[in-house]
Amino acid sequence: MNFGEILLSEIVGTAALTLLGCGVVANVVLGKTKGFNGGFLMINIGWGFAVMVGILAAYKTGAHLNPAVTFGFMASGVDEYVPGIDVNASNTIAYLLGEMIGAFLGAVLCWASYKNHFDDEEADAATKLAVFSTGPAIRNTPWNLVTEIIGTFVLVFAILAMIAGTSADGGPASLGFLVVPFIVVVIGTSLGGPTGYAINPARDLGPRIAHLVLPFRGKGDSDWGYSWIPVAGPIIGGVVAGLVGNAMF
Q1: DSSP line for 102-150
Q2: Which residue of 59, 124, 130, 216 sits 20 to 30 Å from the alpha carbon of 177, by its own alpha carbon?
Q3: Would the pTM count as exceeding 0.85?
């Protein structure tokens, strides 16, 4: 596949992921919705199955949907996870660019779906920002970073283990569209409490940029002081998982 095909596939897949993922957060935290106060478990489940839809939409290109996965694959030395797609600089740029554009577009579509609720003056600025991007329950920069590194390590390592299992015959990687969503759900339910588990730089940064530029009432700042943590943490976690995966598998 060429640059354009990879780019389009990742845009569509990541847009689907972010539309549905941010959408479930909006449904739970914004007032006057049908899902209001549905709880953190509802958000975790919604994000997990949002990942499944994204994988289905971008399966032809391996459905990275996440720069941490892309960098993790590079660090692991995996070069045959999608037949016909080489791991090279051009394709990597296509993955990363598609992930960022798709994440931004998905957040814009989420805003359009909940426009009336974003304009509701009863919802505070922090709640509206939470629809788009993550934030810590207790703000502590080093430990927030550690949380994101650990959560993303689990995600990428599990995906690499799945790929290795298939290579050894009989593994579950061919069912990745079913397996990975449950990995995301268990990360959220187990490790998502401290930071809201971005575990994906594009998923956090793309919607945060959308929050910055979209017009709606009662919008506060986009918390750029925290924004580097859900970018750096997942990339570090993904690369470490790739290196460990390379050594083990």
Answers
A1: HHHHHHHHHHHHTHHHHT-TTS-HHHHHHHHS---SS--HHHHHHHHHH
A2: 130
A3: yes
What is the maximum span of the chain, computed from C-alpha positions, in angstroms?
A: 56
pLDDT of residue 77: 79
Contact 112, 18 (CB under 8 A): no
Counting every residue, how long is the chain? 249
Task: Please give the residue that has the higher pLDDT: either 135 or 177.
Answer: 135
Each residue of 164-180: pLDDT tens digit?
776 555 555 556 678 89
Q: Which element (helix H / strand E) includes 56?
A: helix 40-57
* Secondary structure of residue 64 in the 3-state scheme: coil
Residue 223, by phi and psi: left (phi above 0), alpha (psi -120 to 50) or beta?
left
With contact defined as beta carbons under 8 Å apart, do 49 and 181 qualify? yes
Cβ count near 190 (within 10 Å): 12
Give the separation between CA 228 and CA 213, rounded to whole angstroms: 18
Residue given tokens 């577009």 in the structure block: 105
Query: Mean per-residue pLDDT for 95-101?
Result: 97
In whole angstroms, what separates CA 207 from the centre of its chain? 10
Positive or negative: CA dihedral 231, 233, 237, 239: positive
User: What's at 210, amino acid-wise?
Assistant: A
CA distance 73 to 157: 10
Q: What is the CATH number of domain 3-243?
A: 1.20.1080.10
Position 143 scores a pLDDT of 98
Going 19 to 22 to 25 to 30, the CA torsion angle's sign is negative
